[in-house]
Each structure stands twice: as structure tokens, then as C-alpha cells.
Amino acid sequence: xxxxxxxxxxxxxxxxxxxxxxxxxxxxxxxxxxxxxxxxxxxxxxxxxxxxxxxxxxxxxxxxxxxxxxxxxxxxxxxxxxxxxxxxxxxxxxxxxxxxxxxxxxxxxxxxxxxxxxxxxxxxxxxxxxxxxxxxxxxxxxxxxxxxxxxxxxxxxxxxxxxxxxxxxxxxxxxxxxxxxxxxxxxxxxxxxxxxxxxxxxxxxxxxxxxxxxxxxxxxxxx
Amino acid sequence: xxxxxxxxxxxxxxxxxxxxxxxxxxxxxxxxxxxxxxxxxxxxxxxxxxxxxxxxxxxxxxxxxxxxxxxxxxxxxxxxxxxxxxxxxxxxxxxxxxxxxxxxxxxxxxxxxxxxxxxxxxxxxxxxxxxxxxxxxxxxxxxxxxxxxxxxxxxxxxxxxxxxxxxxxxxxxxxxxxxxxxxxxxxxxxxxxxxxxxxxxxxxxxxxxxxxxxxxxxxxxxxxxxxxxxxxxxxxxxxxxxxxxxxxxxxxxxxxxxxxxxxxxxxxxxxxxxxxxxxxxxxxxxxxxxxxxxxxxxxxxxxxxxxxxxxxxxxxxxxxxxxxxxxxxxxxxxxxxxxxxxxxxxxxxxxxxxxxxxxxxxxxxxxxxxxxxxxxxxxxxxxxxxxxxxxxxxxxxxxxxxxxxxxxxxxxxxxxxxxxxxxxxxxxxxxxxxxxxxxxxxxxxxxxxxxxxxxxxxxxxxxxxxxxxxxxxxxxxxxxxxxxxxxxxxxxxxxxxxxxxxxxxxxxxx
Lengths: 223, 510
Prior knowledge:
- Chain A is of the alpha/beta class.
- Chain A has helices spanning 4-16, 20-33, 37-57, 63-80, 108-119, 133-143, 159-170, 189-195, 204-222, and strands at 95-100, 123-126, 147-151, 178-182, 199-201.
- Chain A is 57% helix and 10% strand.
- The mean pLDDT of chain A is 89.
- By secondary structure, chain B is α/β, with parallel strands linked by helices.
- Chain A binds chain B through residues 56, 59, 61-64, 102-106, 108-109, 112, 132-133, 154-160, 162-163, 166, 184-186, 188, 190-191, 194, 202-204, and chain B through 111-112, 125-127, 154-156, 159-162, 165, 186-189, 224, 230-231, 254, 256-258, 299, 301-304, 371-373, 497, 499-500, 502-503, 505.
């Protein structure tokens, strides 16, 4: 009979090798063995998804595989935690609401960010494309997000990132959220400063570093 | 005398598929239009597809079931022979079917400009604006190896300010070039922006009718996938019907993330999009040109960034060019190049891509650079590549095995040691057909070392750029420039987005 560590390793491996059936069978086996659901996620599945995220950052894994791993992770996690009370759920690194700004339908980038961030321990709510500032704010308030990410591909929709920042400020919510901007319209440091965003990236790997840094700084401030 | 373009040998292109194989892909494209259909975000355009026999699902905004004959009839109304006009008529580009002449240009749309730091090695970047665009437009105007102009810098700064960038951009292009002015793309400020841009065109051309005969730009439709038309592209398409400007459907089925991962499948998908757009244009605006676009696109699956020049796109571009030329008799454009960041890598990738576009017989060749931030020295790199490509085509005839080219009588006369060839009238009269490579540096190895070992891309091209910077295009006549300024002012006042205002999705159709 497999030990607890072996089962957890099997779960991680199922995510790393993109085998959904193995992941689901592993979750079932782990639950039957009495492994705590939170351990199944944090010491099993999460280890696998972090490995995928790291390999992606090193340019060793293509985006479709990250998407697939994130999907498997999500499904297996839901199964593992299906009977866990809300107050005992494992905490994500941070909760993020992300989307492509209003007027822009190019959501491939935000989908990639969504998958990679999910794979790296963030809880991500992806609102898709053509998202109005109000929709960003509404969702962030609803899910208690720590972070809002706004993507824009076109230069003439970049202004929407400013409008969202302004709306957050007007509603007295600006300091509540870490506000990150990104996308193929290439927001730079100057733009980031002008609109008062906390960080920017045009590359998901850099974006992840920026987000983690912002989260760490925010935690330091609140402690 | 017309200065633009270089004649090409139409029967000597590199073709990856035979006529039967092309036909299979063509049939697949019609099957896609019948059974997969097209998503159209704009309801007005969606309704219009009914005239092509499509079955419309208004809830899903998808139209399918296009009968093949309706598509073919629409495409048949697209002209084979047409002119893309220039302020200087000597730079008019005259198209006579597909695969007869090649035209070269540079294209980019970088939102930032790279500036070389004082260390001569590193760069800083800043948001590009209309002054940067005017600068590169003038440079391209002065380089004879470019037959046409296009925007190299996008108006990143003006876009951030919520200004109508297409209007300002096209004004900047027209004021600073005497050549064809390139791409008009989508707008988000308001659909009316196209009306103001059309007024600019009429002002420069001498009236709407003259603009229609010799249009100064085309509209680039950039659907995200070959089979979807978002709101902004729909507006651009309807504006093209209204103002009779040509379009180029940038069919972008971006494999492997949002498109089939084989060149054959992606080509069929791209052809379906190309056929659909052309049929619509032919039906609603017969007689106005459609310049096909051979983008069978792909993304780098590791980064999600655009990827050109790989096997997938190269084979697909080749097949789509053959399809458009051989089955429809129409010319085709190509935006090929690189999304690399480094100047030298761009030079390498661009040379490879461009040579392929040339030998597959593409009619309108755009050398496309990275759209993030651009070092203007890249224009010189591109000019050198264009020069090289044109040189090959201009001198192509020497490979034809004619009696004159074989020159057997002279060979017999000069004998096995060939001593008479060098100063023979035959060879002397052909010296100019020999390309001097590389054109920017003919120094020998020792002299190059003694003089500092400059890099070709970073040093010599940058040095050459200073020479090109001296070019000033023939200025726009004062009265026309004043009229243009008034149009831009009126349009900007009307279309400038307010601080709190989102782009108007609900703007009334034209």
C-alpha cells in the first residue's frame, strides 16, 4: 500500500504530466486513506502546479500545457475540497481579478496570465475581454480581491487602464487593491506612474515577479 | 515614368502545392464557410450577410451556410487590375492581376521609440508620438527601395490621451510622404472617425471620385481569428463600403493557441476568412480593390507573442499566395518579419522571411518589425533587404536559357581559360547586374579591423540613417495642408474621449 508521501507525490506528478484521470484517481485514493484535503492540495497538487509554473518561466513548457495543468489542478482541487468548510480552506497567495479592458477584445494575454498566476498559487477570477471599469470593481469587491489586473493590447484602449485607476480612486478603493497593468500595448514605467498603478509588465514571467513583490510589500505594510 | 515596383517572373515561383492540392484546400475553405460560419459582433454587418445567402443566428451573432456560388460571385466583383495612388503619381502602384510585380515597404506600429544611450550599447524607451511617425515617414519617403509608406510608429502618446489616433496618424502620413500612405486600421473612439479620415483622403486626392480611382490607403481588417469580426473591424469594413477605400483582410487564425496547428488546416481557415471578406467587399462595394493577405499566422506557444517565419507560417503563406494567384487571379500582400527585440536578430529573421516572400511571388511585401519598441536604424536594415530582394528580381532574366544568355559562341571564342571575358563588351555591359554585397560596407577585412570593427546592423545602418534623415519630401500644397488641418481639428474636437468616457460602443452606425 502506498504511503501518504507517495500518494502526494503521485498527485503532483499527475499535474506535471497533465494526466487528469490520474489526478482525480489520486484525490480519491488520498481521501480514502484519510489524508486531510488541505494537504492533498497544498502538499500534492500545488507542488505539481508550481513545478509547471517554474518550467514555464524557464521557457521549457508551452502555454497550452500550463493551461491544461491549471485546468487539472482546478478540477482536482474542487474535488479534494468539496467537503471542507469554508473557514478551513487553504489560503491562496493572493486573490486577483483580471480582464482585458473595455473596448479591447484581445484576451489571449490575460488568459495566459490567468493560467500562469493560478499555477503559481493565486486565486484568479478572469473576467475575459471588453471589461468595463465598473465590472472590474464590482467583481473585486464581490470576491474580496487583493489585486486587480487590467490588460490592453491596443494603444487606443490603454487609456482604459487610467479610467479604471481613476474610478478606483474616486470610490476610495485605490489603496484597497494592488493595481497591475499589462498587455501588448506596452504600458511602461512612465505610464504606470502617470496612472498611479502599482506595477506593470508586458511579459507574464515578469508580471508574476511584480505581483509577488507587490503582495509581499503589502503584507509587510499590513503586519 | 512610374518608379514603383519590380517586375517578377510569374511562372518561376516556389510553390509547395500542386493544382490538385490547392483545390482540396479551396474546397475545405468553402466547407468551413458553410458549416462553421463567421462570428460578427456588429449587428448591421451581420444583417448585411443575408445578401450573400448566409443563415444568421442573431443570438450567437454567427452566420453560416454561405453558398459557394454567392461567395464566388462576390469575389469575382473584386477587380484584378487597380491602382494604389500616391500624392506623386510616379509612385502610384499599378497592379495587373496577381504575381506580375512586387512592391516593397516597411511596417511596424511600434508604440515606443528606442533611444540609444550614450554608452552606445544600451537603450532607453519612450512613448512614440506623431513627431516620431513624421520622422520615419519622411525617411521611408526618401528611400527608393520602398515603393510605399506605412506607419512605423503608432501614436502611443496620442492614444493614451484619448485622441482619435487613426485620424491624426493618417494626417501625419499624408503630410509627410509623396508615396502611398499605407494602413488605416480600426478605431475605438467613434465610428465617425472614418468619415474624417475619408475627408483627408479626398482633400489630398482632389475629390472623392479621384480618391476612389487612386486610393491613398487601404483598411486593414484584423479579426482575431479568420472567422470572427469584432465590432471595430466591422465598423472599418462598413466604412470601406461607404468611402470606397480598399481593404486588406489580415486573416489571423493564430495557431496553435487559437487555430489549427497544421499549415494545411490553418491555410484553409485563413482562405475561408479571405474569401468571406472579399465576397462581402465585392458584393457591397464592387470595383474597389481587396488586397489579399497571406497571413497564415502563428503564435509562439511558449510566450504567446506573434511568431513569423517558422515552418507553419512559411508553408501556409506559400499555399495561400498560390491559392489567391492561381485560383482567383488576385494579388496578395504579406506582412512578414519578426517580433524579435534585438536589431541584429530582427535583421537575420527579416532577411529570411523576406526572401521567402519574394520567391513565393507575393505582390505587396511588408517588412514587419517588432511592434513593441523600435530602433529607427531598423529602417536601414529593411531598406538593404528590400534592395537585395529587388536586385534578384530585376536580374532574374539572366537565368533564362536563351541563346543570348548562354553565349556559347563567345565561350568558344574565349576558350577554356576564359581570358577574354573580363573586358568583353558582353560582360562589361552587364556589370551593373552584379549586386555589391554588402551595400553598406565594401571594405576588406584588414581595413574593417583597423577602422574599429563596426557592426553592420548597429553601427553602419545607424550611420546610414543620418544620411536618410536629410530627406525632405515635397511639401503638401499650402491650401490642402490648411484644409487637412481644419479637418483634423474638427474631428479631434468631436472625437476626443473625455476623461471619464469609455470608447463609444453604442455609437450610431455611419
